[in-house]
Amino acid sequence: MRIGELARRTGVSERSLRYYEQQGLMTAERTPGGHREYGEGAVDRVIRIQELYAAGLCSEKIAQLLPCMRDSDGGPSRTANGQLVSDLTVERERIDRMIADLLRSREVLDEVIEAASVPAE
């Protein structure tokens, strides 16, 4: 499929897809006319990249991680090394801290909502 179709199917801009290619996150074949051609697996790859960006990982870390993941189901392969595992553990701890902070913020909002919902006497 061409870049426009991949962009439509994933909801990711063509510009972002070109950036992913520049960063080594994905590859495309070239037609004789120079157009990018992607295989069907590119849809899963783009979705996986988007999930990793949403988790707060940078493109360099994503590039290290992607070879350790299967695109079809997102499950792990057996190619991770010790340094990557260590780096990802740090990322996971960062995400855990973010989750804890968000939960605290939600508790405060719940308290404010509850207090504001009590009818005035």
Automatic annotation (TrEMBL):
Enumerate the spans annotated as HTH merR-type domain. 1-68
Where does the signal sequence lie?
none
Superkingdom to which the source organism belongs:
Bacteria
- Please provide the record's keywords in A-Z order: DNA-binding
| Protease found in the keyword field | no
Keyword NAD among UniProt keywords: no
Which InterPro entries does this UniProt record tie to the protein? DNA-bd_dom_put_sf (IPR009061), MerR-type_HTH_dom (IPR000551), MerR_fam (IPR047057)
Which Gene3D superfamilies does UniProt cross-reference here? 1.10.1660.10
What is this protein identified as? MerR family transcriptional regulator
Q: Which organism is it from?
A: Streptomyces asiaticus subsp. ignotus
